[in-house]
Structures are given as structure tokens and as C-alpha cells.
Amino acid sequence: MIPIKRCALAYWLLGLCNNYGYVVMLSAAHDILARHDGKTETTSDTSFNPDRHCNQLSTGVILLADIIPSLLVKIIAPFLPLWMNIRITLVVISAALGFILVGLSDSLLLAVLGVVCTAFSSGLGESSLLSFTVFFNDKSVLSGWSSGTGGAGFFGSLTYAGLLMLGLTPRETLFLLLVVPLTMAVSFWLILVNPLNTRMEPEESTHVAPPSLNNIPQTISNHSLWYKINAIPRSLRYILPLTFVYYFEYLINQGLSELCLFEKAFIDPKTQYRWYQVFYQIGVFASRSSISIIQIDKLWILAALQGVNLVYFGLEAIYRFTPSVIIVLVVILWEGALGGLGYVNTFHNIQKEVRPEDKETVTGITSISDSLGITFSGFSAIPLHDTICKLPL
Question: What's the rounded Cα separation, in Å, for the pair 72 and 123?
């Protein structure tokens, strides 16, 4: 018998560890670029307005290094055998290597290579572990994963900002966080119970799937490559809304929020970007943990609301009309909440609406959505950043 509560806990830890490095790299993006730019805030590019305190490169550069490898992995992984032990071994090793390379980096190239390793780890882990949730026949496992990934955002950004405030250097902080991939290994191989080796008998407190679904793992795993390719059109109703939600929110996070600085605020301008990330991730964490309370079927509503946020931050980055940093922090909190709601409700709707024999395939294919939106936003963020930095304040 599989103890569902134990598996839900394991999946919470797996979600936490899988996205931790990704979040830390984005939280450290401004510091990474500043360290290798040779300056703390401003750039030598005379076309940029010095009053805007722009780095020579947008944090969208780090975003692209942090997401393109993840996107490529998510495109390929759903069509490969779900060999979980091999996949998680690669996830753990590449995650550890990412922290080490960025911590040791003495050049931007080495730092970006470390970020790429982290992105590969996160993408492979998400595609694999999300697909694996369908074998548990219980939404508490998916909820545990979703909440854990949200927790990664909150704890990852808070850990990075907090440890630097305590006096640690970015390098010391990254080395300390090597405990994260170790925790992931323990969670998968020691805490999680493999449903393919054990008869599924959910506990009374969970939502029990029909007994006939106990044979689904064998049915799903035998789908042909052509069958999976044909599932792509059926997945678009989930892919498109989530892609737009992430495109809008990451264009805000990596193209606009770093330009929304307040010279006279209770948070020093040099650290405001880090705390923007913290508040964003608080919103993500809360909303990704809310599936038992809030369930949304019309996913396009979330994309439209995120588009409104994009308009606000675009105007704020150009005109600086908001009177207080507190208002920006609240809007960033709301922005993160919309992203989390889009993520968890998309995969919950798949579990609820898709035929049992298609769930693993559709889940794996749809996992590309966030990476797809984030990749497009990274390419958009760089010229957007440069254009605004040339404008008069």
C-alpha cells in the first residue's frame, strides 16, 4: 500500500528542490551582471540615461540562460522513456554543478554556464516529476508538487536576499545551497514510494480514483512516439493560456521591475530588485498551494489579468508615477499570485478533464508552457530594457 501523505510530502520537497536553484539564479541575476559588468549599477554605454541606474545587460540575459536549456529539455523529455532513476540522477548532479560553477565563476561565461546547468536540472526535473504524478491517482501529490515549487520561489528568493543581508557573499551563499540537490536525492530515493512497484491504495482522507485506474501506468508507458505527437493539438487548450501568463509575468520580472526603482524608500535601491523577487515568490507560493480552495476553469482570464499588470509596470518603468514602493510590492505580490494560479489550475484541469490513458502525455507536453512563455519574454526583455534605459527620466 502506498502512503499518500508520505508521497505528498516527498513531492513537496521535490518541487521545492527542483525549482530552488532556478529561483536563486534569477534572484542573483542583478548581482551576477553587476559583478561582471565592473560596476555596481550603471553602465558605460553613453546612450543609456545614467539617472535610470541600468546595468549594461538586462537581467533578461540571465533569464534566457536560465530557461532555454529547460525549454529544450521539456520539448524532448515527454517523447522519451520515463526512466525516473536515471533522470533524477542527472537532475541532482546538474543542479549541484550549477551552484558550484556560478559560485566559482570569475567570468560572465562561466557564470552563464552554471546557470545553464541549473536550467537543465530544473527542466528535466519538472517534466519528469510532473508526468510521474499521474501514477499516484491522487490530487494531493500534484498539490504537494505545486506547493513545493511555489515554496521554492519564496524560500529561494528569501534565502538569497536574507543571507546577503547577514553578511555572506553571493559565492558563500551559493556554496551553502549545495544542501538543496542533496535534499532532492533523499526525497526521491528515501521518502517517496514508487507507485510502479507498489499497489495503489489511497488513504481515506484523499480523493480516490476508480480502481480500474490501477493499471494505467502500464498503458500509458506503452504509448508510441506518433501517439504522443498526435496529443499535441489536444494539449493546446492548456498550453496557450499558461504560455501567455508566463510571458507577461516574466517580461515584468526581467524586463521592467528592475527599472522600477525608488531613490527615497525604506528599502535601499540597490536591494529593491531582490525584494521584488521575494514578494513575487510569496504570491506564487500562496496561489500554488490554493488548489483545494480556488479552482479556475477559464484559464484565459488569468492571462488577461496578467496582461493588465504588464501595462502597469511598463508605464511605471517609463514615467515613475507610483508614489510609494509599497504599491509596487503589492502589485508584484498580485502578479505572482496570478502566475501560481495559472500553473496549478492548468495541471489540475488536466487531471480532471483528460482521459486517464492520455494524462501522462498531455501533462508532459503541457509542462513546456511556462518555459515557452519565459523564453519569449527573455528575448523581449532585452530590447525593452535597452529602449527604456535610453529614455529621459
Answer: 8
